[in-house]
Amino acid sequence: MKTKLVLFSICIAILSMGATAKIKDGKAMTGNSLTEFGKYTIVNSEAPMVYDNKVLETYELTYENVGTPVRIGILCEDEKKCKTFIVRTEEFEIEYACRNNIFGVKKIEPRFQQLPKEEMELKLDKVSYYSQRVICQNKKSQDDLLGLIACYFPDLVKDEYQASF
User: Fold this and answer.
1) How would you write the pLDDT of the chain (165 residues) with one tens digit per residue?
2) Listing from the earlier edge strand, what are the strands of the sheet with 102-106?
């Protein structure tokens, strides 16, 4: 738990100092995930996610040591509530959500699910999952939340499955 707290503190410091640009206007946001996945880059995706006949604001997250990009679709169902981030690769999917200013991971809701639940359960690192249920408890910008996802997402995948990414 102490290691996770240190990792979180470092990630927040990197986000506040190391993110080189906001994602708006076609620019990329970059940083270091502090994981084996390495440095990350987040850009607007050219292929948006679609849910319930709505085109979602979609980003592409790439890591320097991973060949497959991660797509992040953002759904805002109620302006008063925070957003839902659908995080998906060809092999893995998870959801990050912000509710009442608490941001953390949760298992993907069946309405968003595209991959078999049993397959996700096998690949999900349960210790990391439970430690990420609450990542932060104060309001953050969308770019900050995307940066947190980039830093925390790699830990959700069990080590033996990371090679397939």
Assistant:
1) 555 444 444 444 444 444 434 565 568 999 999 999 999 999 999 999 999 899 999 999 999 999 899 999 999 876 666 789 999 999 999 999 988 889 999 999 999 999 999 999 999 999 999 999 999 998 889 999 999 999 999 999 998 887 776
2) 29-32, 39-44, 57-63, 70-75, 84-88, 93-99, 102-106
Q: Is 52 left (phi over 0), alpha (psi -120 to 50) or beta?
A: left
Residue in 68, 71, 65 with CA at minimum distance from that of residue 42 = 71
The model's pTM is 0.83
User: CA 20, 23, 26: angle at the middle one, nearest 5?
Assistant: 110
Provide the 8-state DSSP code for 102.
Answer: E
Identify the helix (H) or strand (E) that includes residue 16.
helix 2-18
Q: Give CA–CA dist 117/108, Å, rounded.
A: 9
Per DSSP (E only), the strands in the chain are 29-32, 39-44, 50-51, 54-55, 57-63, 70-75, 84-88, 93-99, 102-106
Contact 145, 85 (CB under 8 A): yes
